Amino acid sequence: MAAIDKELKDVYMKQSGEPIRFAHGTYVVTQVDGKRHCELTLHNVEQQEMFDERKEEDKPVEMTFTTQENESHEMTFKVKTVNRFNEQRNVVELENL
């Protein structure tokens, strides 16, 4: 399976419905050892502290998201990276569990 790479339009916390505010994001699907692997990468995330706390506490993040092609998905993710070197250009990376 070739990797699928799509632009994100909207991302929300599943339970609260709180929108995740970001400037740019991608949804990537690959096949790893016969299993589907999904990752979200969000740039310039306003709620980076929340993702940082989830990463430190090793708590999953349940999200719903829509691609630019209007495909909707619900998934549970593990926070992989919260890059805060520059508050204006922070990056949050998540991978499905």
For the structure shown, list the relevant keywords.
globular; 97 residues; 6 strands; 6-stranded antiparallel barrel; 1 helix; mainly beta
What do you see in this structure?
This protein is mostly beta strands and 97 residues long. It is built from one helix and six strands. A six-stranded antiparallel β-barrel has the order 1-2-3-6-5-4. The longest helix is centred in the middle third of the chain and has 10 residues, at 48-57. The chain is globular. The relative contact order is 0.25. The mean pLDDT is 92.
- Indicate the proportion of strand residues: over 45%
Percent helix among the residues? 10-25%
Number of strands: 6
The low-confidence runs, each spanning 5 or more residues with pLDDT under 50, are none
Strand neighbour order, sheet with most strands: 1-2-3-6-5-4
Q: What is the residue-mean pLDDT, rounded to a whole number?
A: 92
Gap between N and C termini: 19 Å
The ordered H/E elements are EEEHEEE
Structure class: mainly beta
The number of helical elements comes to: 1
Q: Report the biggest beta sheet as strand number plus sense, adding barrel if it closes.
A: 6 strands, antiparallel, barrel
- Rg, alpha carbons: 13 Å
So what's the overall shape? globular
